[in-house]
Write a structure and sequence with these properties.
Elements lengths: L13 E6 L2 E6 L4 E4 L7 E4 L3 E4 L2 E4 L15 E6 L2 E6 L3 E4 L2 E4 L1
Antiparallel strand pairs: 1-2, 3-4, 5-6, 7-8, 9-10
Length: about 100
């Protein structure tokens, strides 16, 4: 078997998996920018919104940062994978970018 992966035939956001007589390109984990294999522990660098923790790229919980990310009145922070979103608190709705009581 020839190791086609030695020639790095895959794109930057993929890793190469050598198979018998061939190879396949697999997508890197969403937490990675470039990788050497499957999973968040094989990242070359962590994607935006992720931090290296215990040799893995882990989601940053922006909602628990000391500096608030959702600063408008009556707004709550919701952590998402690699990011966050600001939503109106319960009992409030978005009216032209402002959270007003429903």
């Amino acid at each position: 078997d020839l190791d086609e992966c030695a020639a790095s035939p895959c794109k930057d956001h993929q890793y190469c998996l050598n198979t018998d007589g061939s190879f396949s390109c697999k997508a890197c984990d969403a937490s990675c920018v470039g990788c050497t294999g499957e999973g968040s522990e094989k990242c070359k660098t962590c994607a935006s919104g992720y931090v290296k923790e215990d040799e893995k790229c882990t989601d940053i919980d922006e909602c628990n940062l000391p500096e608030k990310v959702c600063v408008k009145e009556n707004q709550d922070c919701v952590n998402t994978s690699g990011s966050y979103k600001c939503v109106c608190s319960e009992g409030f709705e978005d009216k032209d970018g402002t959270c007003v009581q429903t």
